[in-house]
């Protein structure tokens, strides 16, 4: 048997890399390994939104590596190419800024980001909204409100072909808001 070069599909290589980068990190419930979140983001991109671009799927898995680990953009460029590294960089907040300034800058950058980056962020928001069991009622409300603001900012000019992804996230936001008794939630629209 001959040994071949690394022939793993790009998203699988990204999962392996992200698992190493996030090793030892846990989700807010202190039970779930952090890697579950990026893997779910990739799965949402693929299975819920219908994304089949391997570089976008890889970016989905890697989206927190620059922000939450010691990984740098150059590391991602070397392993996954410029496009994936660029997407992950765009999905990363500038942690050198204070929180209000950081959030404002991040929202502004997402507004102008590529559709691929915005799809990754939508999948990230969807997963965070689906994983609120360890959060207080107040934190759940803030998470839903922040998600709603970002979705509004990111999707005003979203292409028609991806509107179903936007709708799925908006429905999840409403579901979460209803779960904490938010009186501002709209009744879900019935299908026409």
Automatic annotation (TrEMBL):
Gene Ontology terms, MF aspect: guanosine-3',5'-bis(diphosphate) 3'-diphosphatase activity
Record-linked SUPFAM superfamilies: HD-domain/PDEase-like
Pfam families given in the database record: HD_4
Cross-referenced InterPro entries: HD/PDEase_dom (IPR003607), MESH1 (IPR052194)
HD/PDEase domain mapped to chain residues: 30-138
Name by which UniProt lists this protein: HD domain-containing protein
Lineage, top ranks: Bacteria, Pseudomonadati, Bdellovibrionota, Oligoflexia, Oligoflexales
């Amino acid at each position: 048997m001959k040994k071949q070069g690394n022939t793993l599909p790009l998203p699988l290589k990204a999962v392996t890399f992200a698992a190493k980068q996030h090793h030892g990190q846990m989700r807010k419930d202190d039970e779930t390994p952090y890697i579950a979140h990026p893997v779910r983001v990739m799965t949402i991109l693929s299975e819920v939104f219908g994304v089949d671009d391997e570089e976008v799927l890889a970016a989905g898995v890697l989206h927190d590596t620059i922000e939450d680990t010691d990984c740098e953009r150059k590391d991602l460029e070397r392993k996954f190419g410029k496009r994936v590294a660029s997407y992950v960089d765009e999905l990363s907040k500038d942690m050198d800024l204070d929180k209000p300034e950081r959030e404002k800058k991040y929202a502004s950058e997402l507004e102008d980001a590529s559709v691929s980056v915005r799809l990754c962020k939508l999948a990230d928001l969807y997963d965070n909204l689906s994983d609120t069991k360890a959060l207080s009622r107040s934190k759940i409300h803030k998470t839903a409100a922040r998600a709603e603001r970002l979705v509004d900012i990111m999707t005003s000019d979203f292409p028609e072909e991806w509107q179903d992804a936007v709708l799925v996230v908006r429905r999840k936001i409403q579901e979460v808001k209803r779960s904490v008794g938010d009186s501002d939630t709209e009744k879900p629209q019935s299908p026409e």
